Amino acid sequence: MKKSIKNLYLMIAACLIGTLSAQKRTENFTISLPTKKADKSYYKTIKIIDDRIDTTSLGIVQQGALNAKARVVPTSPISDQFQSILNTLNGETTEDGTLLLYIKQLYFAEVTASFSEHGYCYFQGFIFGKNDDGTYSLIDKTDTVIDHKASDVTKETLRKGSEMLGDFIAKNISKKPETTLRYTFAQIKNYDDIEKQSINFFSLSQLKDGVYKDYISLKNQQPQQEITNAKFYGSMPKIVRIYETVDGKEKEIKKDDIYAVVYKGEPYIYLPIENLFTKAEKRDNDYYFVGKIKSGTNSGSVLSASAMFGIMGVLIASNPAYPFEQKIDYINGGFIPIKEIQSKKY
Fold first, then answer.
1. DSSP class of residue 173?
2. What's the 3-state SS for 178-194?
3. Which positions ≥6 away from 173 have C-beta within 8 Å?
């Protein structure tokens, strides 16, 4: 079942806490092959650019009655497994084209609630077709979540995730790319920067002040409400209250259901755990900020929060909130933790 990418980030904490407990346990993963041939395929070869932060595994699942964490490990290189999918789909009339799959995220995770478990598989990437001149053009992109709920979810989550990967390849091998925009292989290795050029939040030199209730409005730089004043948390780059002017008087704006604000040209991201906005700074064409992330054991309460977790590590099994440096996922607005902050000044 597809779920909002935002909700997935709520359930998965991408950090290094608890990694050691999963180092010795592994869960093998092999992408199951399609059972039917494709009616038409233009491609005989598929190349992979794996741009995941952690390429050593495919996430974390839980094993046994004690839910011991185990790293999901591919039984053979992911590039070989995708080629096997393509080989299985292709029939006798297959043409000699080449696909290029740029993988940003491919990750399994599990969260245990009171009487059930949620299993997730998150797949984010772009697929290109090779043109006659050796360049590549975009065919399709995906930002998809599988969510499976059961008393024991591991095997079924791996199976559904496997099907999702096969289906993505199957639906695109009968498509030829739009050749208006062409990229070299080297350019696609830095495709994130190309995509960001079309996003106002990343490309504009001056951001528009105001309230942004979701990431879409922020990326398009279309504020839904004006801000005339803000109250900071002492000398720290954190806003605790925001105001608008109504009939000549200042009126506080409720922070509920706000994704971010821009005040005096600077972006501030709302963190529900701290109930404030923290400043995001642009660095290397990404927006970074420091804030606390948290994962509880009750999936309902986690889903009701609006902080989002990126995908690069393991689940946080305990309740404490941890301060992390994070960056904004330019595709969906999720928050990707980079490293834990040890400073006592936070």
1. T
2. CCCCCECHHHHCCHHHH
3. 38, 40, 41, 42, 43, 86, 89, 90, 99
CA gap 315, 19 in Å, rounded = 9
Within 8 A by CB and 6+ apart from 343, the residues are none
The Cα 9–Cα 122 span in angstroms is 10
241: β partners: 231
- How far apart CA 150 and CA 156 sit, in angstroms, is 9
Question: Are the C-beta atoms of 318 and 283 separated by less than 8 Å?
Answer: no
Residue matched to tokens 């010795």: 24
Q: Which domains does the chain have, with CATH numbers?
A: 5-196 (3.40.50), 204-340 (no CATH)
What residue has token string 């994962």?
295
- Neighbour-count burial for 175-195, b at 16+ CB within 10 Å, e otherwise: bebeeeebbeeeebeebbeee
Tell me the pLDDT of the chain (346 aa) as tens digits.
334 444 455 444 433 344 444 457 888 999 999 999 999 999 999 999 999 888 888 888 877 766 778 889 999 999 999 999 999 999 998 999 999 999 998 988 887 665 667 788 889 999 999 999 999 999 999 998 888 887 778 888 999 999 999 999 999 999 999 888 999 999 999 999 999 999 999 999 999 999 999 999 999 999 999 999 999 999 999 999 999 999 999 999 999 889 999 999 999 999 988 999 999 999 999 999 998 876 433 322 222 222 233 333 333 333 456 788 889 999 999 888 787 787 767 6
**Sign of the CA dihedral running 268, 12, 59, 83:** negative
